[in-house]
């Protein structure tokens, strides 16, 4: 079984900025390329942080209301400094949480969730930027055709991993929802089959109607 990796899903051509890139230039790049964040790179193309739309809006939100109807927000010191920044080095969120090209979709998704970020710069062994992967990129695994999911379950999960003849299990897939039916002779409990099927990229849900052949009582006594 093989999960898709970040290197297959990432965007390799990354719009980026340098630490001294100005506020308006960053805003222009976001609008021009229809993106929501840009990595900030040092002179060796290593990510220092990211500047997002939210970071730019911190600057706007901290401005005084010209009409005098709203109080200026009382920001923590770090946010106050960011609200006054005019270049990427002051605006960015740091450090940059990065991924590696060989990470699986599962690894990248767990880091995004754990760090509460929407995208990860992807770096090589030297820490240099080689791409960027977003939540949307990871969700592309759910666009796999049902036929491809079914074939992976039959060939990888059943035959190769568990040693089960795939023709003994009825596997149907509709919109990523897998249904399993049949009677197993070997290969471990039905729960193992179900768990492995859930780990296949693109699977949304698994419904199992699998059972096992019952060994006659006399046969059990003879084997004992």
What's the layout of helices and strands?
Blueprint: H1 6-9, H2 23-33, E1 37-41, E2 47-52, H3 53-61, H4 77-83, H5 88-91, H6 105-115, E3 119-123, E4 129-134, H7 135-138, H8 146-161, E5 169-174, E6 177-184, H9 190-198, E7 205-212, H10 217-223
Parallel strand pairs: 6-7
Antiparallel strand pairs: 1-2, 3-4, 5-6
Helix residue percentage: 25-40%
Low-confidence spans: none
Query: Which architecture of the largest domain would the CATH scheme give at its second level?
Result: Roll
CATH superfamily of the largest domain: CBS-domain
Short description, anyone?
Helix content is 37%, strand content 20%. With 224 residues, the chain is α+β, with helices and mostly antiparallel strands.
Describe, in plain words, how this protein is organized in 3D:
This protein is of the alpha+beta class. It has 2 domains: 6-140, Roll (CBS-domain); 144-218, Histidine-containing Protein, Chain: A. Helix content is 37%, strand content 20%. It contains 10 helices and 7 strands. The strands form 3 sheets. A 3-stranded mixed sheet has the order 5-6-7. A two-stranded antiparallel sheet has the order 1-2. A two-stranded antiparallel sheet has the order 3-4. Helix 9 links the parallel strand 6 and strand 7 (205-212). It starts with 5 loop residues before the first helix and ends with a helix. The mean pLDDT is 87.
């Amino acid at each position: 079984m093989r999960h898709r990796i970040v290197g297959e899903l990432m965007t390799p051509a990354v719009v980026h900025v340098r630490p001294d890139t100005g506020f308006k230039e960053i805003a222009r790049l976001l609008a021009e390329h229809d993106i929501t964040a840009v990595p900030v790179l040092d002179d060796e193309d290593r990510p220092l942080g990211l500047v997002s739309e939210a970071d730019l809006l911190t600057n706007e939100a901290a401005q005084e209301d010209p009409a005098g109807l709203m109080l200026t927000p009382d920001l923590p010191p770090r946010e106050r400094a960011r609200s006054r920044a005019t270049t990427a080095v002051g605006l960015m969120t740091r450090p940059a949480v990065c991924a590696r090209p060989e990470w699986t979709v599962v690894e990248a998704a767990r880091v995004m969730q754990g760090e509460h970020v929407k995208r990860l710069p992807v770096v090589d062994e030297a820490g240099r930027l080689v791409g960027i992967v977003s939540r949307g990129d990871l969700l592309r695994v759910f666009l796999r055709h049902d036929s491809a999911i079914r074939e992976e379950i039959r060939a990888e999960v059943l035959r190769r991993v568990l040693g089960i003849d795939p023709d003994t299990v009825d596997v149907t897939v509709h919109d990523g929802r897998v249904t399993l039916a049949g009677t197993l002779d070997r290969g471990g409990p039905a729960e193992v089959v179900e768990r492995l099927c859930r780990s296949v990229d693109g699977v949304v849900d698994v419904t199992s109607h699998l059972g096992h052949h019952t060994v006659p009582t006399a046969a059990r006594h003879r084997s004992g």
